Each structure stands twice: as C-alpha cells, then as structure tokens.
Amino acid sequence: MAYVNERMSKEDWKECERIVAARRFRGGGGNRSWTIDRERNIWFKAYQIWTSREDGGEMFTEWDFYWKGIYVPAETMPVKIWLSDEGRSYDGHLKLSKIEIPKNALQHKSEILKELKAALKASFMGLGIYATKIACKVDLEYEGALV
Fold this sequence. Notes:
By secondary structure, the protein is α+β, with helices and mostly antiparallel strands. It is 17% helix and 42% strand.
C-alpha cells in the first residue's frame, strides 16, 4: 500500500495524541488530517507551523512522524518553495533542523530519513488533503547534505 492523505477518524486522533503528547517540542494544537501507509505502520502529519522571534523571523514546521512503531518528532525550515510545471506542481527545498530518533532506532537512521522525505512528498509538504496541485518534488537537507 502507498501513502494516502485523509482525515483522521476520532479513534485515530485519540491514539495519535496518546502517542505524541508527551514528546512534542512545544505545546499547542495540531490538525486532524494525516498522510498514512497503514500496511507499513507509518504516518505523518504537520503538527504546528511556527515563526521564530529570533533569526529574522524564520518559519519552521513541527511534524509528527510515526515510523513502524517509533515516534520520531521532526522540524523543518523552508529554504525555498516554489511552483513549477506551469503552476501544477509544488517544489520545495527544506532543511531538517531537528529530529529526535530514539537510541533503539539509530541503526535505522538512513531509512527513517528517506521515509520522512517520502512522507513529505506524499503529503505535498504537509498540505495533504488540502493540496491543490497534482505533483510535488521535495529536496530534504540534513546536516549539510541532501537525503
């Protein structure tokens, strides 16, 4: 099965909140849509978009990423986002500014990073069910290199 963008059921929402509530970088809300691959037990959703009061007011997005039974919170900052293919495609270069991979999953770091990039692409960089374009290309930068 591939990723799908969908609204979360009430049961899924409660389970998601149970998993992530104690591990988030900051408090706040979240949304009730996600990008999910049920067969592989992977889901991804934008949790919060923030604007820093430091560093010139840079924006960043906090993500809830659940990879095969492991919660991996992440944060990205846009380097550049634009429309291409005559406005039919979202293209983005994002910098992964923070990720918390638990010690018991560090041996899977490369796979987790690649799957995070795939989830970003499948979710149209977090727009998910609200995306209005037909395609998305994502470059994800981490520690100075592309994933």
